[in-house]
Specification:
The chain is of the alpha/beta class. The chain is built from nine helices and 14 strands. It has helices at about 35-45, 60-70, 110-130, 140-155, 165-180, 215-220, 225-245, 250-265, 310-335; strands at about 25-30, 50-55, 80, 95, 135, 160, 185-190, 190, 200, 205-210, 210, 270-280, 290-295, 300-305. A hairpin with a 7-residue loop joins strand 8 and strand 9. Helix 1 crosses helix 8 (about 250-265) and helix 3 packs across helix 9. The longest helix has 24 residues, at about 310-335.
Length: about 325
């Protein structure tokens, strides 16, 4: 059961304000491509009153902060500043983007050990300062690191969230929408499982205007061949790698996805997003974090939802869970959980 946070405001200003009454502050740990882009997207959204940018390279963080301040007059009044871990104390959400670059020779799996070492220290520092906040993990491989961050933090699992397949789901919906000739907002489909090679674009329950893909394509006379749908699923799976090959990193898409998750939390939306979190035991996938449709509100993840799967999709989800478990086991060998 969640603890009550409905205390009345007191005159004693040293008393921490409740999540409901204090001004929105977001701390972003890691001022690389993803962290700085997330800070920019967040400032342009106008949701946060304060953005603390934290990085061991203070000079780089200062450069980003000054650049962001130059954009403030064209966007929203936001206090953007170079912070340290003590500034996580007043944060509603701490976003962790630090980790090993995916460009060059290191894959997500190859960078797991080094990124795990980095995150272990960061999570400990953040939770020491802010045991009541929400952790939002964007570092890759995000599912294994979300599970590890939950174990390291001591926080309830509903307050440790990974960006998961939120971006993959967006890529999938966009491609299906282009194929069907409609706006992405009218396509309801999910990518679940690992944010990686074993992800599952769920075609069996995909809907356009309430109709299945087959039904909608029949109405419009648009071919809906299995080979074409397989191509869309494959392009969704490799989209991140293709971008990295072309320009060295991905950051616009994931920055926007992180801001979407932040909005669902700050606005108490109860939005259904495919974020990564510890999987409930009732789903019989073992001790693992994966992306599944989840209701996201002011306190984090209110509920993880099951999704209708056919036999092959269920087997693929089980295989995806095993792939993430292997990453978790590899990480646990060097950084105990």
């Amino acid at each position: 059961m969640r603890s009550s946070e409905t205390d009345s405001p007191k005159e004693n200003t040293s008393r921490p304000q409740s999540l409901e009454t204090r001004i929105p502050r977001i701390a972003i740990v890691g001022a690389g491509f993803v962290g700085s882009t997330t800070a920019y997207a967040l400032m342009m959204s106008g949701m946060a009153a304060e953005i603390a940018l934290i990085d061991r390279d203070v000079r780089r963080a200062e450069g980003h902060v000054n650049d962001l301040r130059d954009a403030e007059v064209f966007s929203h009044t936001t206090r953007v500043f170079v912070g340290d871990f003590s500034d996580c104390c007043g944060a509603d959400i701490t976003v962790i983007t630090a980790g090993v670059s995916q460009s060059g020779q290191k894959s997500r799996a190859e960078g797991l050990r080094e990124t795990g070492d980095i995150l272990h220290g960061l999570v400990s520092e953040v939770c020491l300062q802010n045991p009541r906040g929400i952790l939002l993990i964007a570092s890759n491989p995000v599912d294994a690191l979300t599970y590890a961050a939950w174990r390291w933090s001591g926080l309830p699992s509903d307050r440790v969230i990974g960006s998961g397949t939120s971006l993959d789901t967006s890529r999938f919906r966009r491609r299906l929408a282009e194929r069907c000739g409609v706006a992405s907002a009218n396509v309801h489909a999910y990518v679940i499982g690992e944010h990686g090679d074993s992800q599952i674009p769920v075609l069996s329950s995909a809907r356009v205007a309430g109709s299945s893909l087959d039904e909608f394509c029949d109405q419009l006379g648009v071919p809906c061949e299995e080979r074409e749908l397989a191509r869309i699923a494959s392009e969704t799976r490799t989209a991140g790698v293709d971008i990295i090959d072309a320009k060295g990193a991905t950051y616009y898409g994931i920055g926007a996805a992180l801001v979407r998750i932040i909005r669902a939390i700050l606005h108490d939306e109860r939005a259904i997003l495919t974020v990564s979190s510890r999987v409930p035991e009732s789903m019989q996938l073992g001790n693992v974090a994966l992306s599944l449709p989840s209701i996201v509100d002011r306190h984090g993840i209110a509920r993880v939802l099951s999704v209708s799967l056919n036999v092959s999709e269920r087997k693929a989800l089980e295989a995806s869970a095993e792939a993430v478990k292997r990453n978790i086991a590899a990480l646990a060998q060097t950084t105990p959980m």
